[in-house]
Specification:
alpha+beta; UDP-n-acetylglucosamine1-carboxyvinyl-transferase, Chain; 2 domains; 23 strands; globular
């Protein structure tokens, strides 16, 4: 098992460029199944979850060609639908949460699909009902085999429908959109997710010949077409990485420039970090974070404690709440972190408490952070990463801490962050990869 050994308390300096967006990649890559023509996609992050999906596409019969480090072409001319019945598919599909995203395009183009119950982060239940209810509204029939933990879906006659989503699920919306673009008639999706990643998908599909209107709103209208063609697409930079780097700069008192961030697509993210007292400047399409000895959390206008909560876009993304929480531990002031969307994402705070942070875990969804204003540094400890975002939060804590920290189970971090140790070393961080077994406790 690999681990990161980090010597903390070192100020970092320099420029860092965010990778392509992981959450966009899982949608965009699945969309290549909608056409037999060639699609070129650039700014693809070189991370495990994305690479697994690319490998799965290859197993399905997609011709995949890597042009350079972050650019691939895909040609889904000869899809092997019998691959669904193979043990390989069960193993690979079940181990990758993003594999659910291939169902919509396969239903649209071939009228059938199957998927093992997907895996992924241990952050509580993540329902797939939204996906399947949407497919059912379009005319699909599905059967869940509880013994094999397998979904089989038949959609030989998809027809447009009015769909009111019970939750504004990003992956659910994307999957239904991909199923609807080749369905007969008009589909209306209300309470649709409107994240930039979904907007990117819809724009790409329109370039392929789809007819989607309402992009960027929560009401999408899709007129079905008979066939889609090829296109070229460049993915957005990963907003979660950008937020992580802002938090890392503040925690380590570092002067960092984050390059090519597509600032206009970041929504409220910069403003939320400013509420924590973090100074940042927009410089063209870069974000400059100066070295700060102290940062102070805002209060509400009436003086009451600030609450930062996640909500569907254009609200604050849940993937950055873990980062906000760890950054608040070294701020001046208090904040209530309210994680509404996932039930176990705050369970890593015990490790921060072991490092010296002052946090009260109120319940599975809420934590109150008492910022210590850098009066003393967090202390390095050994810890295990439970999921991608908590893992990076612990990594940021370790970079700011006094002494040495060891983070085990870094495979979780590397599912979402490309070459993170190499890129941090370029800024001056003392981080190295070691072979080590996680502690048994």
């Amino acid at each position: 098992m690999n681990a990161f050994e980090i010597t903390g308390g070192i100020k970092l300096k320099g420029e860092i460029t965010p990778q392509g967006a992981k959450n966009e990649a899982l949608q965009i890559l699945s969309a290549v199944l909608l056409t037999e023509e060639k699609i070129t996609i650039s700014n693809i992050p070189d991370i495990k979850d994305v690479n697994k999906l690319i490998e799965l596409l290859g197993d399905l019969g997609v011709t995949v060609e890597r042009i350079n480090k972050d650019t691939y072409t895909f040609e889904a001319k000869n899809i092997d639908l019998n691959f669904f019945e193979s043990e390989t598919f069960k193993a690979k599909g079940g181990g990758l949460r993003g594999s659910i995203m291939i169902v919509g395009p396969l239903l649209a183009r071939f009228g059938r699909a199957a998927i093992p119950k997907p895996g992924g982060d241990k952050i509580g239940r993540r329902r797939l009902d939204t996906h399947f209810i949407g497919f059912e509204k379009l005319g699909a029939k599905f059967v869940y085999d509880s013994k094999k933990a397998f979904f089989n879906v038949d959609a030989t006659d998809l027809k447009g429908a009015y769909i009111l989503l019970d939750e504004a699920s990003v992956t659910g919306t994307a999957n239904i959109v991909m199923a609807a673009v080749l369905a007969k008639g008009t589909t209306t999706i209300y309470n649709a997710a409107c994240e930039p990643y979904l907007q990117q998908l819809c724009k790409m599909l329109n370039l392929m010949g789809a007819k989607i209107s309402g992009i960027g709103s929560n009401l999408l209208t899709i007129e079905g077409v008979k066939v889609l063609g090829g296109t070229e697409h460049r993915m957005l930079p990963d907003m979660i990485e950008i937020g992580s780097f802002i938090g890392m700069a503040a925690m380590t008192e570092s002067e960092i420039t984050i390059k090519n961030v597509c600032y206009d697509e970041l929504g409220v993210i910069p403003e939320v970090f400013k509420k924590l007292g973090i100074k940042l400047e927009r410089r063209g399409d870069d974000i400059y974070v100066p070295s700060q000895k102290h940062y102070e959390i805002d209060t509400f206008i009436d003086g009451s404690i600030l609450t930062i909560a996640d909500s569907p876009w254009p609200g604050f993304t849940p993937d950055l709440l873990s980062i906000v929480l760890v950054v608040a531990t070294q701020a001046k002031g208090n904040v209530l972190i309210h994680q509404k969307m996932f039930e176990s994402r705050l369970f890593f705070v015990d490790k921060l408490i072991d490092m010296g942070a002052q946090i009260i875990l109120c319940d599975p969804h809420r934590a109150t952070v008492n910022g210590i204003d850098k009066k003393y540094k967090l202390r390095g400890i050994s810890m295990t990463s439970p999921d991608i975002r908590a893992g990076v939060s612990l990594l940021i804590a370790a970079l700011s801490a006094e002494g040495k920290s060891t983070i085990y189970n870094i495979e979780q971090i590397e599912r979402g962050y490309q070459d993170i140790d190499t890129r941090l070393r370029a800024l001056g961080a003392q981080i190295k990869r070691v072979n080590a077994d996680a502690p048994s406790h």
